[in-house]
Specification:
Structural class: alpha+beta
CATH architecture of the domain at 106-274: Roll
CATH topology of the domain at 106-274: Nuclear Transport Factor 2, Chain: A
Largest sheet: 8 strands, mixed
Radius of gyration: 43 Å
Helix content: 25-40%
Number of strands: 12
Distance between the termini: 132 Å
Strand content: 25-35%
CATH class of the domain at 106-274: Alpha Beta
Shape: elongated
Number of helices: 6
């Protein structure tokens, strides 16, 4: 076969003359891939390029919308963050609880050694009690033979007191006779105590009432709790406002027996001469 232009020999299957470059025949265009395979390939490319919060998930021949990996990752991270925050809050609450109730817990432990030597109680509870408070206000206002108290302080009428103290009284043999927990934070805002709407009627309580029911009815934080050889005594200090605008301060005392049953309740007004 000869080239129509240069008349030199060319091969039968040559598309271009190698001598003059004449195009002898056009190559057939390559067909595009169609059908199921090509369609799926195109869909996969589309899925990879599209940004979507959800992606289709086939189930039982149908097509449902379900969260993609990105959505699940966000949800998982959110749940983890909430768990961490909740755990932190719980830890803080527990720490604050033990810090705030440390004195009362110590008093309860020491009360288990009433009628026993002071030295044994110190060893068992693993604390060291002092014979004098670091605060003049306590030394002048609280009766004790030994004392254990908080390091942090509060101010009541410009006088410094520990947040709480545990006073221990002993007999001549140095055996514990009573343990008193005093919460000075009750008087921190006002030396008259906690504000109430009115007078608590002591006649509302009956001998034999359960301790938890009495405390719930009173609804105040105790200013002090004294553990004795027989039973315990709770003292509350509060005030309310009279119709003429005057404040009336009250000390309420509730005495319980060994079975945590109410023995009696007393109530007395506190006047300036008692301050």
């Amino acid at each position: 076969m000869d080239c129509p232009k240069c008349h030199k020999p060319v091969g039968e299957n040559d598309a271009v003359c190698k001598n003059c470059g004449l195009v002898l025949r056009e190559e057939a265009a390559k067909p595009k891939k169609t059908g199921l395979l090509g369609k799926r390939s195109s869909e996969r490319k589309k899925d990879k390029t599209e940004l979507s919060f959800v992606r289709p998930v086939k189930r039982d021949g149908g097509e449902l919308s379900a969260p993609g990996r990105t959505a699940f990752d966000k949800i998982r991270l959110g749940i983890i963050a909430l768990i961490v925050i909740a755990a932190a809050v719980v830890v803080i609450v527990i720490i604050l609880h033990f810090v705030s109730s440390g004195g009362e817990k110590t008093a309860e432990k020491l009360s288990e050694y009433i009628n026993k030597p002071m030295s044994i109680a110190e060893d068992k509870v693993e604390i060291h009690l002092k014979e004098e408070s670091a605060f003049d206000g306590v030394n002048n206002a609280v009766k004790f033979d030994y004392i254990y108290e908080a390091d942090d302080d509060v101010k009541i009428d410009d006088v410094r007191y520990p947040e709480w103290s545990v006073g221990v009284n002993v007999d001549e043999d140095d055996d514990i006779t009573s343990v008193t927990y005093t919460d000075f934070t009750v008087l921190e805002k006002n030396h008259k105590g906690i504000k109430r709407d009115g007078l608590i009627n002591k006649d509302d309580f009956e001998s034999g009432d359960k301790l938890k029911n009495v405390l719930s009815e009173i609804g105040l934080d105790a200013y002090s709790i004294t553990y004795q050889i027989i039973g315990k005594t709770y003292v509350f200090k509060y005030y309310y406002t009279l119709d003429n605008g005057d404040a009336r301060a009250v000390i309420l005392t509730a005495v319980f027996d060994d079975d945590d049953r109410l023995d009696y309740v007393t109530s007395r007004f506190v006047f300036p001469s008692d301050m």
